[in-house]
Amino acid sequence: MRILLLSFLFVIGLLGSRMTGTAEENDAGKLYAARCVMCHGVDGHPRGIAKGSASFTDEAWKKATSVEQIEKIIAEGRSKMPGFSAKLTAEQIRILAAYVLAMK
Fold first, then answer.
1. Distance from C-alpha of 47 to C-alpha of 83, rounded to nearest angstrom
2. How far is residue 68's CA from residue 62's CA, in Å, rounded to a whole number?
3. pLDDT digits (tens, 9 = 90+) for 66-92
4. Please, what are the domains in the chain?
5. Which range has the worst mean pLDDT, 45-49, 59-63, 74-78?
6. Rounded to whole angstroms, how far apart are CA atoms 103 and 85?
7. Which one of 24, 53, 69, 101 is at 20 to 30 Å from 61 when CA atoms are compared?
């Protein structure tokens, strides 16, 4: 029983050490994975229907773009991208926009 408990605590410690960032950053990552990855890829490079849109890791694009502009695009949509204002809260849109702008 003691070995089982120690093994359990060891595994929990390993899982906890893999979690980095704030809760907000982790939530933004989950939102991105759930809502954006299918078109914008894990790495922020557009694919499929999103081809032709900005690469989220392009430094020139980042310098020319603000969080507010990204929030507006997420909320209202743009070109082939639908708006998400009916599916996400304003707070979710805000942290998602900040996440996109911070991608490396």
1. 18
2. 12
3. 999 999 999 999 988 999 999 999 999
4. 21-102 (1.10.760.10)
5. 45-49
6. 22
7. 24
Residue ranges of E strands in the chain: 77-78, 81-82
Q: Give the position of tokens 């032709």.
A: 52
Spatial separation of the C-alpha atoms in residues 92 and 35, rounded to whole Å: 11
Phi and psi at residue 38, to the nearest 5° = -60, -30
Q: With 0.90 as the threshold, say if the pTM is over it.
A: no
Question: Which residue's entry shows tokens 């490079």?
Answer: 45
> CA separation (Å) from 104 to 32, 63, 64, 75?
14, 13, 16, 23
State the angle between helix axes of 23-35 and 90-102 in degrees (0 to 180), rounded to the nearest 10.
90
Please state the separation of Cα 22 from the chain's center in Å: 13
